[in-house]
Amino acid sequence: MIQDRSSGKIISLLVFLLMIFSSFSWNQLSAQSELPLTYLWKPKYYASVEGQERLIYARSFARSQMKFVDIDGDLDKDLLIGKADGRLAFFRNEGTPKQPRLRLETEDFEVIHEEKDANQQLMYLNRIVDVGKNAAPELSDIDDDGDMDLFVGSSDGQIFFFENRGNKLLPKFFRVTPIYMNLNFVGNSVPRFADLNGDLVQDLVVGLKDGRVMIFFNSGVSTNALFCKEFEPLNPPYKRCKYQPLMLTNISPLGDASPAIVDWDLDKDLDIVIGKSNGKLDFFWNKGNPIEPDWHLESNHFQFIDSGGLSVPTFHDMNGDGYPELFVGTSTSGIIYYENRELVFDRLKAIKTMDLTLLNPTDGPERILKEACEQLRGMPECLFPLGAALDVPPGSKLAELDQLLPYLLRPDTSLNSTPLAQSETAETKGKAKKKPVMQANTNTEKDATAETSSEAPAETTEEESKDKANTTVEASEPEVKEPNQLITRNQLWLNTRNFLGLHRLTASERHAIPFSTDWNKDGKSDLILGSASGRLYAFENRGEKEPDWWPLEQKVFAPNQRRYSAPTLGDLDGDGDLDLISGNRQGRLELMENRGTAEKPEWTLTDVNLAQIDVGSYSVPRLFDIDGDGDLDLFVGNSRGLVIFYENQGSKESSMFVIRSTRFAGVNTKGHAVPAFFEWNADNQNDLLVGSREGFLGLHTNTAAAGTSVMKGWKTQSDRWQDLRVPSFSSPYFTDLNGDEKIDLLMGDEEGHLILLENTGVLKTEEIPESELVLTQNIVEEEPVALEETAAVVVQASQAKRDDSAFDPNFELVTTNYGGLDVGKRAVPAFLDLDGDSDLDLVIGNHAGELRLYLHETGSEDGEWLLETKTYLGYQGGRNASPVFTDLDGDSDRDLLVGTERGKIFYWENQGSLELPDLIPNPTPFIGVTGCRNSVPSVLDLNQDGQMDLLVGNFLGHIREYHQINNGDAPHFKLERRQFLNLDVGLGAVPRVADLNNDSFPDLVIGSDHGRLVNFQPNTEEKAVNAMQWKLKGGYFDKLKLPVGGAPVFEDMDFDGDLDMVIGTENGTLEYYRNIGR
């Protein structure tokens, strides 16, 4: 597979030059679209914040899988990081081996693909490494040619292999196979290579999603590795196969095993540390030797480390002292860094007259003590200062240096073989426990912006001293070294929880929406960002050539009732200063007028519903003079993926916005449109770029002739412009940040990150191809309209306005075969508008384990349904699927819960909106939750704590009550009682929550297999602390002849403002009852 070196020198040089050239462009030239212009974007990662350079323009580093390696042959270690998005980030070491300075060079590490063109000629193309999700890089010289090859684990369990066909100075990684050695695992493969058995070839350790850690000893040779799957000893797949794969451990029911290989005790053989999904680490101590390893689990809470979630360990000697530091990647972008302060040197630092640079930290303790003693005027004078530094008890008689050794080396108290660790659980209640010597900071607070702390213990701050005092107690008698007990000189200290130095301008907020303009007339572009909480983050630019962001605080920026703020600025009243408009989750616009000056703005909230505009939800406004009449027009993106155009039919001094188009330029993204104008092709016409929920950017160009309507002449050029993308919810804005008179691109994303792409030029490829115009729909007629004092607004909600007065429902049977549907057996329906067309779609679970999706046929009266799939969302959870759409996480949109025959509950979190759901699987909240056989979930705040609790009906006719508890970022549930209200409805309890009588209080309706429906209402007359009281309410269903196997759902099916009822039956059909109670 390796090319002839002499014949390939020219090709190799060209390939290398191509790699260098392409590194300046965020999008790959080889992947150009057919558009006539290609912008060459160069990502910028660092900028100054309050005068200090920070890493602020970067995507997420969640699930950081770190690999330190000298990738460029300069004798210091660079850093490659695999991320949750399936890509690799590369940090080059611009420092020295002992004083590294890691600097992000790319978030999208590239390799070379060999492909053939139409003429079957071989091409070498640069491609970004993208393994889907959860990239786990590893580098090893697997072919013994003197350079490092690249392997990348992935979320689907494959291991991608990229052969280095360059050299150790100029690496060139060529993609060879996505399934190395045909090894394919269950998921989240994490490969690690090392010579485990001293045969001079690299062996393979793989951690897996299901909790297993597999070891594959190399059956090949150093130049031709061979890793064999499990095989019959008498019939191996290859004659060379001599090693069967071994399972080192299985940490199930925990998962995401992530191994790290390290010689922790410096005994020349390799130990293994395994990260787990609960944030802790397992330590496997090699009690064998370098040739015959023998691993034993010595700790399931190594060094007492707990990251609070996923833990991904990596060991690397940062300062070249021979002792490895520990890095722990987490489920967030924070990487926890533990500095290894070697125990001997750390204690000798207390002797101020010693010169530690004259000592070698890798020497044995006996030699270090001897050389230290010589610096202290020899024996016996040295014994006193050495004894004091090593905390020898006062009054101890010291005559020889060897007497100090027991005080110098301490046992690792996190290991099972340590007497201190063994006796922890055996202590009597009345006996005071002896605290362990500090091995690692045990604080699990998630602080991604914590500053580093590198002082020695003797020079720590007061707070650190207290923490040390609370975690370290020196024994008055040295511990006796027992047989087979691990003694090390390692001493881990928490240095920082933000090793990469990431600094997010929106702190820990989600949904960053940027806007940039010069709001203080100093000639520099300032920056303001919206966020999920509604807070606005504003920064003045005080830099010279490059921005230096200084935070600006004003009262109006604080969260009020708004959520998902989306700012824009413009002079709406003609007074020469910039006013501020913000969109929000409700789909409205807030106006904050500038009551200050053009040079020193002071914004004040003056209107919470500007011009009575309502675009549905998630409004993102942009002001732009599209018609060239000197005043600012208004464009608003919304959650349905549309851009609504409001023409300013007032004046520059008095704006009046009148709706002209509900689908400007034909824009119709897949949710959450974010408009941005810029002149794409230098034709003196401003074009439109639109962000979307998918994370791509859509390009719409303006080709209208002069004098024609601004709503005509728009072309949709690309829905994935230049393949620029963030993980989700792209929010673009164009501005010149560095003053080079080129338009740069800012992009926010759903996770709150901010990306900056600098414009380094434009590549012209060909003339603009002819294409048909995109017809703009839903355009208001262009004839002159009578202007009113307030703007005319089109209301997009299709539902009737609801009468808020309470009334008793009256259900009338409409049909016993609603929609003509028959799903086989045991139908359980759930309704929600899933495709954003303003009518309800239908999801039905059944006995066979199907989760069917039916889309509503637009315009039909009694419900005509089109079967879209029998496995909605890829559901494979088993029989008796029982779906319910409900707001579990309290964010005002509806999530999906599905109960099953085995009692397990599946959860899809709605990360979209109420109008356009985006259901993402999230198993975390329901780990350990089971409702017994045939579980049917429903949610309600039962204990009045503001969080949704869980009711789960089951086959026995009982309902289990779970209360939501805080446990990190995700909700979790604790079983409160097994028989809610002591109810027993026979067989098959089906709880449903709905406000049937429109009194603003929830009703609890319980169905059962025999068909009867029981209704409970809150008893508002009886007050109880932290609990809802219930009373039986009859009459609603007494006169109805209900079907067997009743699984009711309550929705406003006819859009008349009250809740109708659809019941799934045992025979697989649906019955529809209209509510005529109003």
Q: Which SSEs are present, and which pair or pack?
A:
Blueprint: H1 9-22, E1 37-44, E2 46-49, E3 52-55, E4 65-69, E5 78-82, E6 88-93, E7 102-106, E8 110-116, E9 122-128, E10 136-140, E11 149-153, E12 159-164, E13 173-177, E14 190-194, E15 203-207, E16 212-216, E17 246-250, E18 258-262, E19 271-275, E20 281-286, E21 295-299, E22 312-316, E23 325-329, E24 336-340, H2 343-348, H3 365-375, H4 383-389, H5 405-408, E25 410-411, H6 419-424, H7 462-471, E26 487-488, E27 492-496, E28 513-517, E29 526-530, E30 537-541, E31 548-552, E32 566-570, E33 579-583, E34 589-594, E35 603-607, E36 620-624, E37 633-637, E38 643-648, E39 657-661, E40 674-678, E41 687-691, E42 697-702, E43 714-718, E44 731-735, E45 744-748, E46 754-764, E47 811-815, E48 828-832, E49 841-845, E50 851-856, E51 865-869, E52 882-886, E53 895-899, E54 905-910, E55 919-921, E56 936-940, E57 949-953, E58 959-967, E59 970-977, E60 990-994, E61 1003-1007, E62 1014-1018, E63 1030-1032, E64 1047-1051, E65 1060-1064, E66 1070-1075
Parallel strand pairs: 2-31
Antiparallel strand pairs: 1-46, 2-3, 4-5, 5-6, 6-7, 8-9, 10-11, 11-12, 12-13, 14-15, 15-16, 16-17, 18-19, 19-20, 20-21, 22-23, 23-24, 24-27, 25-26, 28-29, 29-30, 30-31, 32-33, 33-34, 34-35, 36-37, 37-38, 38-39, 40-41, 41-42, 42-43, 44-45, 45-46, 47-66, 48-49, 49-50, 50-51, 52-53, 53-54, 54-55, ...
